[in-house]
Design a protein that fits this description.
The structure is a single chain. The protein has a 5-stranded mixed beta barrel. It is of the alpha+beta class and 238 residues long. A hairpin with a 5-residue loop joins strand 1 and strand 2. Among the domains are: 30 residues; 74 residues, OB fold (Dihydrolipoamide Acetyltransferase, E2P). The termini are far apart.
């Protein structure tokens, strides 16, 4: 029994001695492998990716999509609504016809008046320019041609008008009615145009009678109708 116990002790000691040796051998085998394996290089840091636009929230997108059809539905409803008064309906129909025909848009009365004023101003400027040219041309013609003697005017300060006519009535006392015949040529048609006028003249001595050719002169007002005075009797009636 004692021998068996001694053998067991010896085996245990040998097993304990062999165990460290096996552990040293495994560690020695792992050490060269660790030394042979290269150390891994540090991986480069990844570049920062560009910021992507933040997507709208689905709720906001849905609300915008809902509002657009609603606004589109309201616009045709407002356009399709007929005007309240007949005047507005007529105005709308005129605007539509003008738009179809390509005419100018409807303007306010103030705009039309402003356009008319501008047109009138331009026409007045053209007329002024034309008149200035005519005056300059006439002055050049006058300066180029010799001065002509002009007859004195019939009427002026201190000179009274004189007329020759035929007595048509002498019934009133100291008053005769004289007819003045005028014949002139028409400026455009070159036709002789005849006209006549009557006037009342003062005859102090009742010298003139019906049919006489007389000369009368302008004077101060002598009555309600008389503004002329008998000068002489040129020819007696036959």
């Amino acid at each position: 029994m004692a021998d068996e116990e001694q053998n067991e002790n010896v085996e245990e000691t040998t097993d304990a001695a062999e165990a460290p040796e096996a552990g040293d051998a495994a560690a020695a085998a792992e050490a060269p492998a660790a030394e042979a394996a290269p150390e891994p290089e540090a991986a480069p840091e990844p570049e920062a990716a560009p910021e992507e636009p933040v997507a709208e929230e689905p709720a906001a997108a849905e609300e915008a999509a809902d509002e657009q059809p609603a606004a589109a539905a309201e616009a045709p409803a407002q356009e399709a609504a007929p005007p309240a008064t007949p005047k507005e309906r007529r105005r709308q129909s005129r605007a539509q016809r003008a738009a179809r025909s390509g005419a100018q848009p409807t303007r306010t009365p103030e705009e039309r008046q402003a356009e008319r004023d501008a047109t009138r101003r331009k026409a007045a400027e053209r007329r002024r320019g034309a008149r200035a040219k005519l005056r300059a041309k006439a002055s050049e013609a006058r300066s180029a041609s010799p001065a002509e003697a002009t007859a004195p005017r019939e009427h002026g300060p201190g000179r009274q008008k004189t007329r020759q006519g035929i007595v048509v009535s002498d019934k009133a006392d100291k008053t005769i009615t004289v007819r003045i015949d005028v014949a002139r040529r028409h400026r455009r048609y070159e036709k002789i145009v005849r006209s006549s006028s009557t006037l009342h003249a003062h005859d102090e001595r009742n010298d003139a009678h019906v049919g006489d050719t007389v000369v009368v002169r302008e004077s101060r007002p002598l009555s309600r109708l008389k503004r002329w005075r008998l000068v002489e009797v040129v020819e007696r009636a036959k």
